[in-house]
Amino acid sequence: MRSAVFSFQTPPAALGLRGLACRRGGRGVFAGLDAEVAPGGALVLRGPNGSGKSTLLRLVAGLLPAAGGTISWGGQDITRHLDARARIASYAGHLDAVKPVLTVEETLGDWAALFGVPRALRAERVAAALEAFALDGLSDMAVQILSAGQRRRLGLARLLLARRPLWLMDEPSVALDAASVDRLAAAMAEHRAAGGLILAATHIDLALDGAETLDLGAFAPAPEEAW
Ligand SMILES: Nc1ncnc2c1ncn2[C@@H]1O[C@H](COP(=O)(O)OP(=O)(O)OP(=O)(O)O)[C@@H](O)[C@H]1O
Fold first, then answer.
1. Closest ligand 1 atom to Cα of 57
2. C-alpha span between 185 and 202 (Å, rounded)
3. Average pLDDT score, the chain
């Protein structure tokens, strides 16, 4: 695999979550959530269905507002700084906002432009991302005819374009075959070796060396606060 991560657009720093709370649809999902991830570190989110793993990832990504608490980066409060969060974090969830008629390569090229990758670097970044997730042979294929695992690999390849220090990953191994799980592990290890951070919701073991685990079930609001 080519070097997937050689420099970050924003330098890695410690992520701090303090007393975080989130409500969805008028209902409390979690409250009083504390966590810390150091540069090079990984935090695995566990917990029953509906305990808020995806919600926490979306909240840190800036896609949902916090009902309470703070998010810090390198000790600076960035709870209300969505532009800072956008420079820091890349979110890999379900691939919903893709143009179905574009090819795999065109899609990655579009994302590279969207993420502000300088024009002169885009072709190289796209090629490295294709190679890292063995998408080279599929580069001319329209996204709409990709299988579930191929789509997942495309979504993961997106992480290698933006070079943001914090990867927010929602069930990244779902639909992947064994070889692709190995590629995912290699990409995550390389990201962390360069100082990158990972927050990952997963029901399976992702072989993240030295990762801490956070059980979202422990932060469920009391029943009288949940509604
Ligand atoms: N769009 C929404 N509007 C209102 N409530 C929502 C919405 N999406 C999710 N929720 C609620 O938020 C809570 C947390 O959901 P979330 O998807 O974060 O859980 P999860 O831990 O990721 O679950 P799973 O293990 O099933 O993926 C659930 O009670 C869910 O019903």
1. 18
2. 13
3. 91
